Amino acid sequence: MRRDLLHALNRARVNRQAIATLSDERGETVRLIREGEQAEDVPGEVLARAFRSGKPSMVEVAGGALFLNVYLPPPRIVVIGAVHISQALAPMARLAGYDLTIIDPRTAFATEDRFEGVDLRPDWPEDVLKTFPLDAHTALAAVTHDPKIDDYPLSQALKAGCFYVGALGSRKTHARRVERLLAFGHSQSEIDRISAPIGLDIGAASPGEIAVAVLADIISAYRKRAIASPAGDAS
Length: 235
Fold this sequence. Notes:
The chain folds into 2 domains: 3-71, no CATH class; 76-223, NAD(P)-binding Rossmann-like Domain (Rossmann fold, 3-Layer(aba) Sandwich). The protein starts with a helix and ends in a 12-residue tail after the last helix. It is built from 8 helices and 9 strands. The radius of gyration is 20 Å and the shape is elongated. Helix content is 38%, strand content 20%. By secondary structure, it is an alpha/beta fold. It has helices at residues 3-14, 44-53, 84-96, 125-131, 147-160, 171-183, 188-191, 207-223; strands spanning 19-23, 29-34, 57-61, 64-71, 76-80, 99-103, 119-121, 138-142, 164-167. A 5-stranded parallel beta sheet has the order 7-6-5-8-9, sandwiched between helices. It has a 4-stranded antiparallel beta sheet with strand order 2-1-4-3. α3 packs across α8 (207-223).
């Protein structure tokens, strides 16, 4: 691979940006395509499908066939709240192939004993997210039920374009949350992206069942996520 292409590929991977390579029959990379970019000789639906699935494929272009290989950042889940739902969600997420981080400033809940082997950040989201920013390949689940803890990361998730944003709470609780997010300057269309009450509607009642509903909702959102075009449209 040419040095300039290799450097661009490495930069994209370090910055958690999805990128694809097009290679010829000798395996030589001829160019890169970033998620959201258009390629005149590769149909948009082919690129969108590849960026959603991460699976390699062959594409026919003028002059022959090229091998399309996609490099996706590892999808991750950021959970706001070290609660019982989080305890159930952590091992499920690991089995499903998602990195998971839990943020909660309440050190009585955010303990290693309760979350052994989990990336646990016992600090305020405002402080954690300064050096651990959200991005388009991150799902955010806010489950503390405390606006002082949940509202800021929810707002940041909407700004960052997280592929999933969910919040625990009844419809009445969410209505008050909507008012606060509108006051933060978010549009109604942005706020409508929030899955609230959080998770798929499967009648979940226990923390374990709610965790299943949340993870299923996240997986669905990731596999069906929109792939933005350079003009800001979605494929």
